């Protein structure tokens, strides 16, 4: 099955958010679309079919990764945002990531010389910046995501948790030296590390401690000395210092720089032709939304 449409934002008149989603949830085209996404991820992905789930739209966005911006295929469902690396355009994806929409927040970012039409996707589990090919695609994406989030939290009768967002990582290229001590210059030997609490790039001595950040991982995570100190101060004021871990020597990820602790979606793909998608000229069906929200 191909989603063959040369028209961007080919919005069809299904109303997924009306009448308990029944119309779209049970629609044959919705089932087929979701099954096709599952098939494209193959064994590397999770089962995406679930009662009540609607695929709202999909398209290519350029995701700011650690080393550079890279094209990723995004799928917006009414309860999750899924993305993955593109192996074969519209046919094969891997490195699937699933972000629950409950606590997703969006934040606009200003255009820069080279990177335009971007915004932040913030969540407790993962936060990053994406760029759309055009400003209208950006508006469409942001509007659809926001509608899904607000509908979801209304439907579940919950409120978004404030300020538990995972930080957006500072790209490697933005830091030639440690952002904390400002002395340590990075090299092949002196590797960069990212603080999991604030996202800055720091040297090993400036990130010798770990904290438990349960929303990100069940294991203690590397943090910069500032964040560690702040947390220690906080918890000595409070009663339960449960999420403090003593400074450690670089256990666990010693051999490593951050490549072991890096996002696994950040690895370079073999098919370099995809880099062309980084340029904003990748207009061939960048995105398609299937549903028109009624709200
Ligand atoms: Zn340092
Ligand atoms: Zn920090």
UniProtKB/TrEMBL annotation:
Keywords, ordered alphabetically: Metal-binding, Zinc, Zinc-finger
**Region Disordered: start and end of each range?**
235-277
Q: What cellular-component terms does GO give this entry?
A: early endosome
PANTHER family xrefs: PLECKSTRIN HOMOLOGY DOMAIN-CONTAINING FAMILY F MEMBER 1 HOMOLOG, PLECKSTRIN HOMOLOGY DOMAIN-CONTAINING FAMILY F MEMBER 2-RELATED
Ranges for domain FYVE-type? 172-232
GO BP terms: namely:
endosome organization; endosome to lysosome transport
Please list the residue ranges that the record marks as compositionally biased, kind Acidic residues. Answer: 250-269
Q: Which organism is it from?
A: Octopus sinensis
Q: Where does the signal sequence lie?
A: none
Q: Residue ranges of the PH domain?
A: 54-150
Q: What molecular functions are annotated in GO for this chain?
A: phosphatidylinositol binding; zinc ion binding
Write down the superkingdom of origin: Eukaryota
Tell me which Pfam families the record gives.
FYVE, PH
The protein here is known as: Pleckstrin homology domain-containing family F member 2 isoform X2
């Amino acid at each position: 099955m191909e989603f063959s449409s040369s028209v961007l934002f080919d919005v069809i008149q299904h109303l997924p958010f009306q009448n308990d989603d029944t119309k779209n949830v049970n629609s044959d085209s919705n089932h087929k679309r979701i099954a096709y996404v599952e098939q494209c991820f193959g064994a590397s992905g999770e089962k995406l079919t679930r009662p009540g789930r609607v695929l709202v739209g999909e398209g290519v966005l350029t995701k700011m990764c650690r080393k550079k911006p890279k094209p990723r295929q995004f799928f917006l469902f009414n309860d999750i945002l899924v993305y993955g690396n593109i192996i074969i355009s519209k046919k094969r994806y891997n490195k699937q990531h699933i972000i629950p929409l409950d606590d997703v927040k969006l934040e606009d970012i200003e255009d820069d010389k080279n990177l335009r039409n971007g915004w932040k996707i913030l969540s407790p589990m993962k936060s990053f910046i994406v760029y759309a090919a055009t400003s209208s695609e950006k508006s469409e994406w942001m509007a659809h995501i926001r509608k899904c989030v607000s509908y979801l939290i209304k439907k579940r009768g919950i409120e978004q948790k404030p300020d538990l967002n995972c930080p957006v990582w500072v790209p490697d290229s933005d830091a030639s030296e440690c952002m904390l001590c400002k002395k340590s210059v990075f090299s092949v030997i002196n590797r960069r590390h990212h603080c999991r609490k604030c996202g800055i790039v720091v040297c090993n001595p400036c990130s010798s401690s770990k904290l438990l950040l349960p929303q990100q991982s069940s294991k203690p995570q590397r943090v910069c000395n500032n964040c560690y100190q702040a947390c220690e101060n906080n918890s000595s004021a409070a009663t339960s210092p449960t999420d403090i871990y003593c400074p450690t020597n670089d256990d666990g990820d010693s051999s490593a720089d951050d490549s072991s602790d890096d996002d696994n979606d950040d690895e370079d793909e073999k098919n370099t032709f995809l880099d062309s998608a980084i340029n904003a000229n990748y207009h061939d069906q960048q995105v398609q939304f299937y549903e028109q929200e009624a709200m």
